Amino acid sequence: MHESRNNISVILQRRLTSAAGTGKLPRLDIMPEIEACVVDTCGGCPSAGSVWKEKVLKCTKMILKYLARASVPFQPLLDKVSIFNSDIAQSSVHSLACHDGRVCVENTQIYALLLPLTTATYMHENADELIFGGADNPSPLLEIVEQELAWRAVGNVDVYLESAKDVNSLRNTIQILMMYNKNVSLVTFHIDSETDEDDVIITLQRKVGLWLVSYVESTRDHVLHDDQDSNGPEKAEHRTQQGPERDEYANEELGGGLDAKIVVRF
User: Fold this and answer.
1) Are 86 and 146 in contact (CB under 8 A)?
2) 169 vs 58, 85, 132, CA distance in Å?
3) What is the pTM for the complete model shown?
4) Residue 138: pLDDT band by 50, 70, 90 thresholds?
5) Where are the chain's structural domains?
6) Residue 85 to residue 162: CA distance in whole angstroms
7) Residue range 245-266: average pLDDT?
């Protein structure tokens, strides 16, 4: 049976309402956000540009509303969060990142609730069409969840890298961990024993350098705007996949309050 976009949004609403807990997320409270993400979002936009950003923002609002209402949005995260490139189909680090009590994106409840959307189809012009899929209509959902996990991580966090390319794939998540989340005290990068360690270090150093420049400029603009507006700057919305933003800047002295180390482990 082929579903319509509206039917698929109703199915998602039932899953989210049921998982959130009794009375936590009534249908009428979450349907506008679900429809904005699943029904009204663009069906043909690449992962860049203003239309894509609007799509990400709409889906982010849906996910954050669920997490704000859910009885248990995430399992305990203190010293348990692991990050890896989940886009790699045959990942050699999956078992390290997701087993033995570790919390990775793939064993969170919200990931399981949203995963069916990545393969859901509807009938469009007598042909099956993916709700999200392909280069012209990618899904932002799972990356949003991964970045939210990074925002909520506490204590020590492990990042597993199979190559320097993973640094680029995980750049937004790593940026949150190293620059913005005040509750992260140590980020440990585990790299494949066959990977060029220097390549990983250089790639990370370049990213951190760019983030520091951006951070300084953002802080300067924040202060200038505050001086010019007696009401103070508007609160920045939490965004994903386009540079993390929060109401307050974290780890203001990078390297002072946050440690990072690299371990060749697997």
Assistant:
1) yes
2) 22, 7, 19
3) 0.80
4) confident
5) 5-264
6) 8
7) 49
